[in-house]
Amino acid sequence: MIRVEKLHRHFGGFRAVDGATLEIADGSITGLVGPNGAGKTTLFNVIAGALPPTSGRVMMDGEDVTGLPPHALFHKGLLRTFQIAHEFSSMTCRENLMMVPPAQSGETLWNAWFGRARIREEEDALRRKADEVLDFLTISHLRDERAGNLSGGQKKLLELGRTMMVDAKIVFLDEVGAGVNRTLLNTIGDAILRLNAERGYTFCMIEHDMDFIGRLCDPVIVMAEGKVLAEGTIEQIKSDERVIEAYLGTGLKNKESA
């Protein structure tokens, strides 16, 4: 699905991503973990087109998509969410979802004047699809609530729902669990697993909650200092001395050895 080859992203002399090579398999839920400053979000930004790489390549289904802008990748089925949800706060949850599909008939002046019947039919279909998505995510009771009034976890669910309004192939989730209570986090996890199993979504997710990563992800990729440090199952990652050192530091490791 996605292959990243010797990717670099430098900011002056700082190498935020420093030669990372990794693969995200079709149909997988891949975890991306590492200490703060490891380069995880910068890697996401380069893959998703928000930042150009300094060098290296990003391949999607065998096609070189390096440096394509986010809207071009969106049309290819590559979507991402953010650490802080980007909702239209004054619009309802249903309206937020209905805004997502591109090239809607009502966006042109000609159709606004002469294609009103088609616009109504399209909006009715979008409304039904949005309601189906809200039902799937178990937040149908919030369909008419303004998105700005939602809790942090509910906003994350709504953002996940936006990926369901188009034909997503792969979704990059950036700290979907940040600031979310355990109950809602379980709901988000259930939704991700169902989307993967029932609709064939491929996911790659940055997350610091290792229990959440362990429940959902296989494989897990560890980054440190802009490089890929290790890859494997959650059990392999937790027992890898390089990973322990990257997270806890050599001081603790040496102290335990003594």
Summarize the SSE layout with pairings.
Blueprint lengths: L1 E10 L2 E11 L4 E5 L6 H8 L7 E6 L2 E2 L5 H6 L2 E3 L12 H6 L10 H6 L1 H21 L15 H12 L6 E5 L7 H18 L2 E5 L3 H7 L3 E5 L2 E6 L1 H6 L1 H8 L1 H8 L1
Parallel strand pairs: 3-8, 3-9, 6-7, 7-8
Antiparallel strand pairs: 1-2, 1-4, 4-5, 9-10
Helix pairs in contact: 6-7, 10-11
Protein name: Lipopolysaccharide export system ATP-binding protein LptB
Keywords: ATP-binding, Hydrolase, Nucleotide-binding, Transport
InterPro entries: AAA+_ATPase, ABC_AA/LPS_Transport, ABC_transporter-like_ATP-bd, ABC_transporter-like_CS, BCA_ABC_TP_C, P-loop_NTPase
Structural description of this entry:
The chain is 41% helix and 22% strand. With 258 residues, the chain is of the alpha/beta class. It has two domains: 2-87 and 167-248, 3-Layer(aba) Sandwich (Rossmann fold), CATH 3.40.50.300; 91-149, no CATH class. Helix 6 (152-163) packs parallel to helix 7 (182-199) and helix 10 (241-248) crosses helix 11. It starts with a strand and ends with a helix.
Q: Count the helices. How many?
A: 11
The major pleated sheet works out as:
6 strands, mixed
Stretches with pLDDT under 50, minimum 5 residues: 250-258
| Residues in helices, as a percent range | 40-55%
Number of domains: 2
The H-and-E topology, N to C, reads as EEEHEEHEHHHHEHEHEEHHH
Q: Would you tell me the overall average pLDDT?
A: 89
CATH fold name of the largest domain: Rossmann fold
What is the CATH top level name of the largest domain? Alpha Beta
Number of DSSP E strands: 10
Shape call: globular
Radius of gyration: 20 Å
Secondary-structure class: alpha/beta
For the biggest β-sheet, the strand order reads 6-7-8-3-9-10
Ends apart, CA distance between termini: 45 Å
Output the CATH homologous superfamily of the largest domain: P-loop containing nucleotide triphosphate hydrolases
CATH architecture classification of the largest domain = 3-Layer(aba) Sandwich
Strand content: 15-25%
InterPro entries: AAA+_ATPase, ABC_AA/LPS_Transport, ABC_transporter-like_ATP-bd, ABC_transporter-like_CS, BCA_ABC_TP_C, P-loop_NTPase
Keywords: ATP-binding, Hydrolase, Nucleotide-binding, Transport
GO molecular function, one term: ATP hydrolysis activity
Organism: Roseivivax jejudonensis
